[in-house]
């Protein structure tokens, strides 16, 4: 069952509500907002009392909450939000994400993590039928740091960086009942064309043919403007209906750069705007930082709800 493709439930009941998210907290901007359904993910970087600000000086908006319209929430299957008033619904959304929690969100803790094997072909991957989540992203996006942070082990992901393993499908067994899978980073400028083509081929084969793959977690660096290669990757996953969660990394890098660099929230909004045409329904997304551990527990809870649903169906 492809979770990301399932229809949203009962959205019309809340069609006029917006929920406001900040990286560390939720704010309900207005329980009875004016009749206006924003088309984009974050309708604005709203403050409770909006003050017009010069574009060049928005640094004091660092912790300003963001709004998410209801039709941009990820509502897992078998999840009914029609009985929730706005504050109750806001409490059910994972911090710094668009993900609503379902009854399947349990058993999220990682107590054990072991490297199992590195495979070069999908058919060589573990055959025990356990559910798995694949981490993928541009090289340097923070994939190893995130993997280490998820399993609370400083050096586990180094295994994937050992010579001969960087281009492999690396399986890590968690709690003896599911896998985290580290896929090769893409976008190495210096990699020979033929090698790039080959990586593409085998990761695409893995995405399309790995029957125990519950969801791909596509890592995108939130401290940089959207990159074409990440947009292409998201587009390919969307077109091929591969379930995907977007993980925005390095969300602690909040300082506006002198050269006009944008804050993570602005880059995330831009990325969402650019990919919205690739998907029938908004995929789940979440903000993270391996420096502050922002999003760590939330990712694990999201993985748990996807996994428990997958196991039951
Ligand atoms: P990988 O190549 O995708 O595995 O990326 P790494 O995990 O090796 O990280 C690449 C660089 O980004 C390293 O210098 C990390 O210290 C840094 N980095 C990774 N995650 C974060 C993060 O959440 N915040 C910040 N500020 N830096 C990070």
Automatic annotation (TrEMBL):
Q: Pfam families this protein is in? A: MMR_HSR1
Q: Does the keyword GTP-binding apply?
A: yes
Q: State the needed cofactors, names only.
A: Mg(2+)
Any one biological process term the GO annotation gives: cell division
All copies of the EngB-type G domain together span 129-309
MF terms in GO: GTP binding; metal ion binding
The UniProt similarity line reads: Belongs to the TRAFAC class TrmE-Era-EngA-EngB-Septin-like GTPase superfamily. EngB GTPase family.
Instruction: Enumerate the HAMAP family for this protein.
Output: GTPase_EngB (MF_00321)
Database matches in PANTHER family = ENGB-TYPE G DOMAIN-CONTAINING PROTEIN, MSS1/TRME-RELATED GTP-BINDING PROTEIN
User: What name appears for this protein in its UniProt entry?
Assistant: EngB-type G domain-containing protein
């Amino acid at each position: 069952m492809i979770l990301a493709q399932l229809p949203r439930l009962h959205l019309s009941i809340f069609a006029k509500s917006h929920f406001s998210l900040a990286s560390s907290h939720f704010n309900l901007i207005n329980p009875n907002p004016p009749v206006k359904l924003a088309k984009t993910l974050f309708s604005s970087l709203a403050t409770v009392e909006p003050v017009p600000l010069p574009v060049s000086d928005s640094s004091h908006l660092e912790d300003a909450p963001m709004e998410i319209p209801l039709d941009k929430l990820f509502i897992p299957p078998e999840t009914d939000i029609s009985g929730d008033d706005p504050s109750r619904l806001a409490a059910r959304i994972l911090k710094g994400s668009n993900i609503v929690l379902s009854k399947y969100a349990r058993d999220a803790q990682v107590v054990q993590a072991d490297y199992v094997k590195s495979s070069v072909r999908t058919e060589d991957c573990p055959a025990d039928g356990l559910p798995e989540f694949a981490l993928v992203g541009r090289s340097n996006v923070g994939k190893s740091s995130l993997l280490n942070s998820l399993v609370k082990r400083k050096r586990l992901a180094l295994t994937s960086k050992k010579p001969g393993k960087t281009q492999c499908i690396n399986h890590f067994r968690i709690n003896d009942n599911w896998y985290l899978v580290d896929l090769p980073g893409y976008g190495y400028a210096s990699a020979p064309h033929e090698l790039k083509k080959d990586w593409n081929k085998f990761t695409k084969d893995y995405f399309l043919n790995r029957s125990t793959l519950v969801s791909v977690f596509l890592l995108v660096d939130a401290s940089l403007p959207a990159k074409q290669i990440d947009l292409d990757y998201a587009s390919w996953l969307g077109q091929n209906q591969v379930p995907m969660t977007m993980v925005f990394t390095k969300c602690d890098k909040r300082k506006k750069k002198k050269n006009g660099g944008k804050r993570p929230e602005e880059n995330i909004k831009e990325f969402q705007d650019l990919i919205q045409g690739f998907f029938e329904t908004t995929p789940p997304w979440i903000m993270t930082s391996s420096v502050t551990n922002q999003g760590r527990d939330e990712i694990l809870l999201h993985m748990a709800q996807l996994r428990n649903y997958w196991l039951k169906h």
